[in-house]
Task: structure prediction
Amino acid sequence: MDKVYLGVDVGSISINFVLINENRHVLFQSYIRGAGDPVQTVQQALKEFSGFMADFPDRQISGVCTTGSGRELIGLLLGADLVKNEISAHARAALHLYPEVQTIIEVGGQDSKVAILRDGLVVDFAMNLVCAAGTGSFLDSQSRRLNVSIEDFGALAMESENPASIAGRCTVFAESDMIHKQQIGFLQKDIIMGLCIALARNYVSNVCRGKELRPPCLFQGGVSANPGMRRAFEAILGYPVIVPEYHMVMGAYGAAILAMEACGELSAPASGAQTRFRGYDIRDMDIHSSGFNCRDCSNECTIMQIWNKDRVLNCSGGRCEKWNTTIY
Result:
């Protein structure tokens, strides 16, 4: 049997799967945009993934790692052997592809991150979890206002020769400024490139405040698919920015590598240990969630329950151990 390792990145906008072999070669990758329901999106991704795996009966999943904002919940449902934060996963993939990397720019749909690496180690990082002006949702909302698909956004930005100056510190101010630029006659392509520069400027000044962004610099995450954003970062930083081959799924790729490194020895036949991966059962489950406030003490914790039809799979959210149980 050929050992393979699965990485799953559960983000706020997308769910990414990456399957690798023992040589860290990518055998399968998927990027599926969600609709605010990570469980349903993972079920959809699992159907695609299990169909792929059906063609390769000799491949054995020997380790699974989840990362991203929904890593705990999905890790529980999948039976992950490892649950890691996004910084660790993105850094691991970046270091594998570019061992000399010193800066990682990661811009997703709802958050953005920067990781500073020196001599192969993460020495500093920062995340933006509050303001949307430094994330992909900023571009999504403006593309809808301009009636331009987000897929065409980057190509139009690259056509700009005179980018408009857009106030990008706040989405509300950016929209007002963008409307003003339209009214005084700026071309659409120049407004779009101006929005890319505004996002990049906001990211560098806020997320990266006080950090030394040395090259080589990798640009990862969903927004890295926009060539206008790469152009904007290069203009602000003053040096080339690298968009790696698996830029859209680097978190999942890094998670797969971490799963291989953690489980490779354990899954050896001599050890007798096996992965905790539950298989593909959850793809067909009727999973839903519900919440309530516990009134048994003054904390009044919000308890979240995950159900499969009428059976509780997991219960979490309490400060004490009363409700924090896992049945599944």
Q: What stands out?
A: Confidence is low (pLDDT under 50) at residues 267-272. The chain has three domains: 2-90+251-284, 99-243, 287-326. Residues 213 and 237 are 8 Å apart (CA to CA). Residues 188-207 form the longest helix (20 residues).
